[in-house]
């Protein structure tokens, strides 16, 4: 397995539930290290840009509205096979289908308020990390 970085976002619903620490604890127990982090209130333009790939999807406006409904916690996670490891911790997009013990099974209420975002591949991760963090703000752990 390769040492990788992935972009993780704790979405407004999970920030509001005050479970940032619980979620960070799962990352650390799985061997993922926080290499950069910040809390941020996204602007509409930032959220639209981040989810540009979904622009034509019917849920796009609702997704953007949700992502700007409160601050998010954004982090870069680093570790062996970080992209897949993080996706496994997150669980399926729809929390009703998420495996027991995953973040979405435990903290998400619905497919549109589903607690976390995680990059889906190493290539996307590089783009998403650069979207939020200058390279000087990402630390080698
Ligand atoms: N989403 C939604 N309705 C859908 C599908 C997706 O609201 O029917 C939202 C949901 O918040 C999801 C995000 O759009 O996390 C991005 O969708 P994707 O398929 O990339 O899922 P993810 O990679 O987040 O599991």
UniProtKB/TrEMBL annotation:
GO terms for molecular function: kinase activity. It is found in: Cytoplasm. Residues 3-140 form the Nucleoside diphosphate kinase-like domain. Major role in the synthesis of nucleoside triphosphates other than ATP. The ATP gamma phosphate is transferred to the NDP beta phosphate via a ping-pong mechanism, using a phosphorylated active-site intermediate. SUPFAM superfamilies: Nucleoside diphosphate kinase, NDK (SSF54919). This is Nucleoside diphosphate kinase. Belongs to the NDK family. It comes from Luteimonas terricola. The keyword DNA-binding does not apply. The lineage of its organism: Bacteria, Pseudomonadati, Pseudomonadota, Gammaproteobacteria, Lysobacterales. Its EC number is 2.7.4.6. Keywords: ATP-binding, Cytoplasm, Kinase, Magnesium, Metal-binding, Nucleotide metabolism, Nucleotide-binding, Phosphoprotein, Transferase.
